[in-house]
Amino acid sequence: xxxxxxxxxxxxxxxxxxxxxxxxxxxxxxxxxxxxxxxxxxxxxxxxxxxxxxxxxxxxxxxxxxxxxxxxxxxxxxxxxxxxxxxxxxxxxxxxxxxxxxxxxxxxxxxxxxxxxxxxxxxxxxxxxxxxxxxxxxxxxxxxxxxxxxxxxxxxxxxxxxxxxxxxxxxxxxxxxxxxxxxxxxxxxxxxxxxxxxxxxxxxxxxxxxxxxxxxxxxxxxxxxxxxxxxxxxxxxxxxxxxxxxxxxxxxxxxxxxxxxxxxxxxxxxxxxxxxxxxxxxxxxxxxxxxxxxxxxxxxxxxxxxxxxxxxxxxxxxxxxxxxxxxxxxxxxxxxxxxxxxxxxxxxxxxxxxxxxxxxxxxxxxxxxxxxxxxxxxxxxxxxxxxxxxxxxxxxxxxxxxxxxxxxxxxxxxxxxxxxxxxxxx
Length: 426
Known about the structure:
There is one protein chain. This protein is mostly helical. It is 88% helix and 3% strand. The protein contains 8 helices and 2 strands; from the N terminus they run H-H-H-H-H-H-H-H-E-E. The protein has helices at residues 2-74, 78-100, 104-163, 166-192, 195-216, 222-348, 359-381, 385-406; strands spanning 410-416, 419-425. The protein starts with a helix and ends with a strand.
């Protein structure tokens, strides 16, 4: 009973420790798994989409700037649609980024970007509208210039030649030269923005007005006056359009500088500050995921090794205790069997020898005694099947030593030619 209680206590303690270890390891693994899944969710659903949104905003800003610049060069109406699409994409990705960035600094930077983009986009539309107005004024200016050239070539110069006055011919030729110079310098100023071209344009205007005043001081016929008045009217219209074109061009130059400054500010916030913030969050999430994964692997290996050690230790202790006690039981059982056989042979068989008429009857009695002895001892030796074979093999070897220890007489049987003789050995 004491043996069973000892083994039961050891088994209970071993399984209790094992269950506690499994429970603790499960809690630790669950905690690390939650950290790992949280960082994976942060990477997959927040940080990477936030980086993508900021990059898309930067791309849309650059597309808007490119479309505005190309429009100022080519005045292609398809670019207006592209600018409008870029604005819609920017607004959509900005709303997405506002939802993904959780830090106050990130939201502040996004709001700042939105304000700058509104000013940037407004300036872009203003530049486009000014370019359209310049194109219209330039078209009117070119039309009036062509009409002035026609008047000079078809009316003013023929009348001057008809009058045969050299001064009229010179002034009529100067009018055409000044008109062509004004058109040339205005085009160069619009195309290259060169300040000398603007100054040359105004110089050509001054020369035209001076030559026109000199022309009107001459003795003119009614036809010459009417032709000169028509030319002066067209010139005055062209002068207004040219001044408007020059003013718009100068304003566009200033606005385009602001437009470029806004672009640089937006690009700096999106490409440097927001991207750095997003990358730092992503880097932190990746480091946390790697640390959680490493800790999780360490916990798993630790639990596995500790479980193996605990199992082997428990098995060793239990088997050692059981083997020790089974060894004692086996030795006692063998001694008991030898003692019972010796007593049977010594005390029971010799007194009964005269009662048997033949050796066959004596053999039956001996077999009966041995059977009864084995039935008595079978509950003791039944528990270990492996011990039976060991007991059977070692019984014969230990029989002599056991008999010598007990100092009891034994009988040995000798059989020869169908006869048996019993001899008492002391």
